[in-house]
Design the sequence.
C-alpha cells in the first residue's frame, strides 16, 4: 500500500511577475446566461489588463473561435440547470450539478448569504498570462 505525502505550502496565488504586455488573447463566450457571462467576461478582461495585456490585444467573440493568431484563447461558458436534460448529462459528468446560485457566486455576482463570491474570470485571465509567459520562457530553454 502506497502512502501519499502531502505537498506543503503550495502557492496557488497568481504571481504578478508575469508581463502580459506583448500578448494577444482571444476570449470566446457563450451567448446564454448573459448576466453571469458578462460578469465573468469583465473579471477576465480586468485581470488581463492588470497583467499588462493591452485592451486592443484582447479580442472577444461570441460562440465561434476568433480568427487570427493568439497566444491564448479563454473559453467562457455557464451550465445552469433548466428544463432540457442535457444539463443533467453534462453536469453530472463534469461538475456535480451546479445551481444558478453557484454560477452567480463563481461570477462574483452572487446574492446568497455567503457574499457575492469570487469572479473566476479573474483566475482565467491570470492563468492565460502565466501559462503563455511560461510557454515562451520554456520555448527559449529557460526553466
Sequence:
Amino acid at each position: 500500500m502506497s502512502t501519499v505525502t502531502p505537498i506543503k505550502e503550495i502557492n496557488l496565488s497568481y504571481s504578478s511577475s508575469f508581463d502580459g504586455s506583448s500578448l494577444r488573447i482571444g476570449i470566446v463566450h457563450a451567448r446564454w446566461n448573459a448576466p453571469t457571462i458578462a460578469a465573468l467576461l469583465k473579471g477576465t478582461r480586468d485581470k488581463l489588463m492588470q497583467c499588462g495585456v493591452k485592451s486592443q490585444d484582447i479580442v472577444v467573440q461570441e460562440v465561434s473561435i476568433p480568427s487570427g493568431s493568439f497566444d491564448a484563447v479563454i473559453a467562457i461558458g455557464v451550465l445552469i440547470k433548466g428544463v432540457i436534460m442535457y444539463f443533467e448529462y453534462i453536469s453530472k459528468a463534469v461538475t456535480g450539478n451546479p445551481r444558478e446560485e453557484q454560477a452567480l457566486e463563481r461570477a462574483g455576482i452572487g446574492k446568497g448569504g455567503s457574499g457575492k463570491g469570487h469572479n473566476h474570470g479573474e483566475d482565467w485571465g491570470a492563468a492565460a498570462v502565466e501559462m503563455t509567459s511560461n510557454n515562451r520562457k520554456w520555448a527559449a530553454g529557460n526553466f
